């Protein structure tokens, strides 16, 4: 996968929030258990997403996490950029500094087009779109589990 574990888990967690359509706060521990993601790792991910404004957190007995904006305003690209920056969409696939038209790496010309398509696709898919697909389809966000078998909040 092109994504780091941080982005992979962050996208899955945000899609989970969108899938349950949560206006209320959901406990991070519950999300962690439902998606089979380490609680401590997921907590750190949600801290980054909170700093970026993509989620809101609330402490206390009824606390947890909820989307910080409407589902239709958050794209998968937004989540990745919040967690890793935009390097996936701007840097050389081989990590070479100063790679560009003047000094291309062996994959530069192919990667530029692919990178633009990936960015366009991730930027066009909102949490609303995917949340609706999760609620209507047989998609999964964890190993061996179809969305419909995950307990909705």
What does it look like?
The protein is mainly alpha-helical and 153 residues long. The protein has one domain: Winged helix-like DNA-binding domain superfamily/Winged helix DNA-binding domain (Arc Repressor Mutant, subunit A, Orthogonal Bundle). Helix content is 51%, strand content 5%.
Unreliable spans = 147-153
Number of helices: 7
Which series of helices and strands comes N to C?
Answer: HHHEEHHHH
Major sheet strand order: 1-2
Shape: elongated
How many domain units?
1
**What would you call the structural class?**
mainly alpha
Give the tags.
153 residues, single chain, Arc Repressor Mutant, subunit A, two-stranded antiparallel sheet, mainly alpha, 7 helices, 2 strands
Summarize the entry for a quick read.
Helices cover 51% and strands 5% of the residues. It is mainly α.
Q: Mind sketching the topology for me?
A:
Blueprint lengths: L4 H16 L7 H8 L3 H14 L2 E4 L5 E4 L8 H9 L2 H4 L17 H17 L2 H10 L17
Antiparallel strand pairs: 1-2
Helix pairs in contact: 1-3, 1-4, 1-7, 2-3
């Amino acid at each position: 996968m092109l994504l780091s574990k941080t982005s992979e888990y962050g996208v899955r967690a945000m899609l989970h929030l969108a899938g349950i359509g949560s206006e209320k706060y959901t406990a991070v521990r519950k999300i962690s258990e439902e998606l089979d993601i380490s609680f401590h790792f997921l907590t750190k991910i949600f801290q980054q997403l909170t700093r970026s404004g993509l989620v809101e957190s609330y402490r206390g007995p009824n606390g947890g996490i909820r989307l910080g904006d409407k589902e239709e305003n958050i794209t998968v690209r937004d989540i990745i950029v919040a967690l890793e920056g935009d390097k996936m969409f701007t840097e050389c696939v081989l990590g070479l500094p100063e790679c560009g038209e003047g000094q291309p790496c062996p994959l530069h010309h192919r990667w530029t087009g692919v990178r633009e398509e990936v960015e366009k696709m991730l930027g066009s898919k909102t949490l609303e779109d995917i949340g609706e697909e999760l609620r209507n389809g047989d998609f999964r966000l964890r190993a061996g589990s179809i969305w419909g078998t995950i307990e909705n909040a």
